[in-house]
Design goal:
The protein contains 11 helices and 9 strands. The strands form 2 sheets. It has a 5-stranded parallel sheet with strand order 7-6-5-8-9. A 4-stranded parallel sheet has the order 2-1-3-4, with helices on both faces. It has 2 domains: about 15-135 and about 290-305, Aspartate/ornithine carbamoyltransferase (Rossmann fold), CATH 3.40.50; about 135-285, Aspartate/ornithine carbamoyltransferase (Rossmann fold, 3-Layer(aba) Sandwich), CATH 3.40.50. Helix 1 (about 15-30) packs across helix 5. Strand 1, helix 2 and strand 2 form a beta-alpha-beta unit. The termini are close together. The longest helix has 20 residues, at about 285-305. Helix content is about 40%, strand content about 15%. The relative contact order is 0.17. It is an alpha/beta fold.
């Protein structure tokens, strides 16, 4: 079994079989992470560059750890300590990295389309670790893995993505991936944070958080992205929490099992109350652990393609 593409640029158009293969492979690696020696020699001799043009904690560390667990040689590139500061263009930076004979490039960039562009100027396998407001495919995959781990399936589940949809690359990857796997996907948030025409992707829109809680099995709660000026789309964070914040009282009103995801970092008291962020409904730290297993699966499947 192998993937149908030698790159992972997004989940839009990725066949269900590919997603299933990644999730199944991640289960194998999830077991590896429970062993006393959490390392396998699968990618020994492969060189992977983490090309991060944007700040990141979870994603960068998760990819780096996944690479080390697979015994690959890892090079971390940071713009703050590179020749980019001296005016070197993106293309020249990549060409120089390419000349060092690397096998894979994991890229995160504030501009949408950069991973796609990389496939044209590099022979390496390209993995998108988040590009602008476009996609974040490994986050979408680890979210799906975490839902399946908790609820045993994806097909037929009702999943609502809550919050700042307009600024979220996680939302798009979740919509594409979950719909491919047969889930029923909706979004919920202030009208100013819901992109126009999102219904064309086959999602329902909820404008009331209580209705979204009542009618869904899973809430994937997104961070209000203040660094992307999301704060200008709502009157105040307090107001947002009042109308769209997930609290224990809100959930318990419906007396139902619901699973809460959050890609992190959490703005506590805004998207989630602390009781929910630390409570029994959430799988937030499971998502972090599963992220390493899912990224190991993606790296392995791309790195062993012939």
């Amino acid at each position: 079994m192998s993937l149908s593409s030698r790159h992972l640029l997004g989940l839009n158009g990725v066949p269900k079989e590919d997603i299933q293969l990644i999730l199944d492979t991640a289960t194998t690696f999830r077991e590896v992470l429970e062993r006393p020696i959490k390392k396998v020699p699968t990618l020994q001799g492969k060189t992977i560059v983490n090309l991060f043009y944007e700040d990141s904690t979870r994603t960068r560390i998760s990819f780096e750890l996944a690479q080390k667990r697979l015994s690959a040689d890892t090079i971390n590139f940071s713009t703050s300590t590179s020749s980019v500061k001296k005016g070197e263009t993106f293309k020249d930076t990549v060409r120089n990295i390419e000349a060092m004979k690397v096998d894979m490039i994991v890229v995160r960039h504030k501009s949408a389309g950069v991973p796609q562009y990389l496939t044209r100027i590099s022979k390496a396998n390209i993995i998108n670790a988040g590009d602008g407001l476009h996609e974040h495919p490994t986050q979408g995959l680890l979210d799906m893995y975490s839902i399946k781990e908790r609820l045993g399936k994806l097909e037929g589940l009702k999943v609502c993505i809550v919050g700042d949809i307009a600024h979220s690359r996680v939302a798009l990857s979740n919509i594409f991936g979950l719909k491919s796997m047969g889930a029923i996907v909706s979004v919920c948030g202030p009208a100013t944070m819901i992109p126009l025409g999102i219904e064309s992707l086959g999602v329902k829109i909820f404008t009331n958080i209580d209705e979204a809680i009542a009618k869904n099995d899973v809430l994937n709660v997104l961070r209000i992205q203040l660094e992307r000026n999301a704060g200008t789309r709502i009157p105040s964070l307090r107001e947002y929490h009042k109308y769209f914040g997930i609290t224990s009282d809100r959930i318990e009103k419906f007396n139902k099992e619901i699973v809460i995801l959050h890609p992190g970092p959490i703005n506590r008291g805004v998207e989630l109350s602390s009781e929910v962020a630390d409570g029994p409904y959430q799988v937030i730290l499971d998502q972090v652990t599963n992220g390493v297993a899912v990224r190991m699966a993606v790296l392995y499947l791309l790195g062993t393609m012939h």
